Amino acid sequence: SDMSDPEMGWVPEPPAMTLGASRVELRVSCHGLLDRDTLTKPHPCVLLKLYSDEQWVEVERTEVLRSCSSPVFSRVLALEYFFEEKQPLQFHVFDAEDGATSPRNDTFLGSTECTLGQIVSQTKVTKPLLLKNGKTAGKSTITIVAEEVSGTNDYVQLTFRAHKLDNKDLFSKSDPFMEIYKTNGDQSDQLVWRTEVVKNNLNPSWEPFRLSLHSLCSCDIHRPLKFLVYDYDSSGKHDFIGEFTSTFQEMQEGTANPGQEMQWDCINPKYRDKKKNYKSSGTVVLAQCTVEKVHTFLDYIMGGCQISFTVAIDFTASNGDPRSSQSLHCLSPRQPNHYLQALRAVGGICQDYDSDKRFPAFGFGARIPPNFEVSHDFAINFDPENPECEEISGVIASYRRCLPQIQLYGPTNVAPIINRVAEPAQREQSTGQATKYSVLLVLTDGVVSDMAETRTAIVRASRLPMSIIIVGVGNADFSDMRLLDGDDGPLRCPRGVPAARDIVQFVPFRDFKDAAPSALAKCVLAEVPRQVVEYYASQGISPGAPRPCTPATTPSPSP
């Protein structure tokens, strides 16, 4: 085969952190669908639409079940899942009795709307079906159960060696290397791995290697795998030594017990067909075959991990008097200020992952009633016993109520609020479980006054289950913030201790002024899944078991 020098060019896929997208499968069932006429039950079908680029697009649909008012559909609806996007979904149920392929007014049985984030964070959602006029469609409901497409995140570590390979070289021994191919559905072969060359050795031991189960066999343990052994030649005309086939299932079974190895005869078909006493061209031994689970963000979310979201708002005087239209805190009836826009965009996504939908919200840098002393972590609802607001709308209402009652002042001290959120994170850490990960959203107009204390607080927090998102509002110089972000090298506290991991994401709001709110959310939240996985993995904490979903027991009649 014509190929580049195996010692040089070929770079296999890096062991990916499977983070950005994960595939999610939704299973759908309905209960008590309306009959369109008294004689026949409906033939229901569910259409799934996703809101993207300002419009609703059909992405998947179930099969049609005949004469059934409480259908359990077998066809799964598969979607790519992104934490940092809202991903609104609509489920339309319609009666496909006369072969109808889309819901018309007379075939429409009801619909519901929710986000993919809500479904994965609850793993099972049951909602009433609504008619076009917004009224409920009788007592009919739809139930959606989410499962992550499992098995795609496993990695396999393999170690091979060979014995008594045929010698292909005149003046020295063969220089063997091995290639592994998987057979695709169309019977074509795809190269999966090529080992290094072991020089001048008929009994080579190749280096152990690690690759995803997806790339080895497309996550199908029965898929045929081909192994080809060659003698390397610098001219690129490598001499074929022999081959054998196997499957991943066979490889796992053959090495299941401790110390158990598996071996194959390495066969050259030409020799086998021509030579009378041909046995083999050597043997290849699989000395190790171990599978390691790589947990994803979704594994943690669906295992019951909540994202606990806290907001901190900068009320220092540099924002400008809120009564002035130039102020960053101006409450104009025309359009929400940048603080409100950032809060809505980021909070709107985070609230899907917090079961109680209650968010502690704090302010810093203001003089607050009754004594008008400066505070750097006051509850914006002025209830120090319970700083939580109901949903993001509650945070916004508290912000609007609080602004006229406080005096914007200074300095811009951020450490107190970081340390405040670190307290519950410290308690969570001591449980040793993945149940609550804290995200602190800091909205600020600029230069941090307590830089040394803030660096110390962040380095401390980097060892806890928490992340910090800083959105810079206004046109100030944000060079401090970029330093905290740690993208230019690890952040260190003044004593020189480095952060355990990068937990700060800084974004200037001005870069997103004219973009859709979703663009800001996407940018600031994109790092969170990696930070969650990195934290729990570094602590050796596995996700909780996915919460059991009780499948509907009634089998549905298929057409």
TrEMBL record:
Say if the entry is tagged with keyword Repeat: yes
Q: Does the keyword Lipoprotein apply?
A: no
Domain C2, residue spans:
2-129, 136-265
Signal peptide feature range: none
An example GO BP is: cellular response to calcium ion
One MF term in the entry's GO annotations? calcium-dependent phospholipid binding
Domain VWFA residues, every copy: 308-528
Which SMART domains does this one have? C2 (SM00239), VWA (SM00327)
Q: What keyword terms does UniProt attach to this protein?
A: Calcium, Cell membrane, Cell projection, Cytoplasm, Cytoplasmic vesicle, Differentiation, Endosome, Membrane, Metal-binding, Repeat
- At the top level of its lineage, which domain of life is listed? Eukaryota
Q: Name one GO cellular component term.
A: plasma membrane
UniProt xrefs under Pfam families: C2, Copine
**Principal subcellular localization:** membrane
Q: Where does the record say this protein resides?
A: Cell membrane; Cell projection, Dendrite; Cytoplasmic vesicle, Clathrin-coated vesicle; Endosome
Complexes and interactors: Interacts (via second C2 domain) with OS9 (via C-terminus); this interaction occurs in a calcium-dependent manner in vitro. May interact with NECAB1.
> Which family is this protein grouped under?
Belongs to the copine family.
Q: What does this protein do?
A: Calcium-dependent phospholipid-binding protein that plays a role in calcium-mediated intracellular processes. Binds phospholipid membranes in a calcium-dependent manner. Plays a role in dendrite formation by melanocytes.
In Swiss-Prot or TrEMBL terms, this protein is called Copine-6
Whose protein is this, by species?
Crocuta crocuta (Spotted hyena)
